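Quick check before the chapter quiz. The format below is the same one you will see on the exam, so make sure you can read both the input and the output lines.
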Amino acid sequence: MFRAAAISFAVVLGLVALAGAGAILLHPVTGQVLDAETGQPLVGVSVLVGEQEMVTDAHGSFAVRGLDRLQPLRAQAPGYQPLEGASIPGGLAGWPASFRLTLQPVVLKGTVHDAATGAPIAGATVRVGDRTVQTGADGSYAVERVLPGAQVSAQARYYRPANPVTYQGQEAIDLALAYLPTTVTVQDSSGGQPLAGAQVTAGGATAQSDEQGRVSFARLQPQTEVRASLAGYEEAQGQAGPGDTLVLSLRRSAVRGTVRDQNGKPVAGALVLARVAGQEPRLAYTDAEGRYEFQGLPANASLLVRKAGFAKLERDLAKEPNYDLSLQPFVAKGIYLAFHFLRPAYAEQLQANLAMVDRTELNTVVIEIKTETGYLGFQPKNPVAQAIGAGYDDVIDVRALLANLKQRGIYSIARIPIFEDDLLATKRPEWAVHTAGGGVWRAAGGRAWTDPFRKEVWEYNVGIAKEAIELGFDEVQFDYVRFPSDGYISLCRYAQESTSESRVAAITGFMAYARSELDKVGAFFSVDTFGLTTFDHSEQGVGQMLDQMAQYVDYASPMVYPSTYLVGMLNLNDPWRQPYEVVKRSLDAAHQKTSTLIRPWLQHYDDYHGVGIKYGLPEYMAQKQAAADGGSWGWLWWNILGEYDERTFAPAQ
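Here is the expected output.
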């Protein structure tokens, strides 16, 4: 195992001969210890000569005195093989006064191999103390001059590092490395919940996920394709290798979710609209438990949820893949702004009204986006509207206005008169109400009406409503959803016979059609009716039946203006002077007819010229109190000039 110092045998024999000649003059003997490979002097080597012990200095040198004969020598240093069995001469005259010793470095050898297969691992990094070496193709390594106590460890890509081994003079240290496992977690994409029982396939192996949704593979190669599948979910895939942790999120092939209110209670009958760019929207309605479902909904879909009494909710599933939705209540408190407020000349008055909304409990504006004359407050895309020149030029940028309202937290409703449409009836006379002679019939005010029986008129107005929603309105409200009532109505001729039954069927049919179409854009939908529809059980010749119309809207808005009620209605002797009773009794009667939320129009104007009645703040407050007492879901105030007494409204909270 050990090799002796490189002391020349000739020198030793000569020394012995001199000693035999009887020379007795002694002198010091010096030595130097060198590295056998590098020739560099070794510092701190422990040298034992006879009974004298010394340590080499910075030059690797040592000195011995008083030697008169051959003495045994032993030298050792950390990281080197010890030198034993050599002798040095004494300090006799004529004997050499100095000599050199060489020490062979310790060499630690070993291999790094796979703990499971025993296969050598090439390119592994072996750390010995503060030095590192790489294993060769056969997994072997060698390190010289290893100090006792040095920690020996190894690591390699795709393997767990080996536990350190302490070097204590071993000739060889072999190290086994364990291959890193791959962990796959399977979860539900909507909420991140782990999915148990999913089938996970990788590298030819298949396993099922546990209760935590996890699967472990012992020996996957780098960038192995991993697939996960589970009944009711779309397959997901990814790539993983040793040591990786891969999360696969499975999207439900049948997307299911629940809509709840702010208290966590399920919301039944909510519209859930799923939209994907380039595809037709898909609709679902929540059941009694607030649940809804879509089959095969792509990851880039967005959801819109609409339910009367709540604020609209929109969610981009690509950014927030959660199918459970919570709605917040919303009660509209609004004022009416007629068409002229969209003209630049009225910009100051418009902003004054919006500032009042900001300062008070008001949160809603109803904007007349289409007039009874048939003109629109924007340039339409509808080809019929373009052909008849329905787009009014002298208006502000309505899209920008609506964007500003959203920033201010103001809910916007587009008022759209339907069948009173002078422009459409004049430009498309075949769609108009006619006289017995075939001409276009006109009401007492001189305006022409479109025929409520004509499906073309239905489609035209619903198309305008969709464009209003695209502009940015939160809701569309239809007005004049009826047959004409003023003028020589006995002269009216329609596309089919006008009877009480046919008129109700036409109006109700239009409402059903509008609802089905507006659901496709997720619009809130409301309708204005005569105030008498709340308590009268006939259609009064105009086709309006509150109970039948209200089933198709989110909010029914009867116009319960005291000035339109006659003596005896609602058993009132003087309805003009009884605003509280008119509103309260009308609402009570309406609730008996329908479960649809009632959001009435209230009177904010003086319509009693010449009869000695002054309509002002007391009458406004009486109506407002009656609406609250009558269970209304908010209210809307009408004033054609947009002149409102701010004292009617509580300050903003």
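If your answer matched, good. Confidence is low (pLDDT under 50) at residues 1-23.
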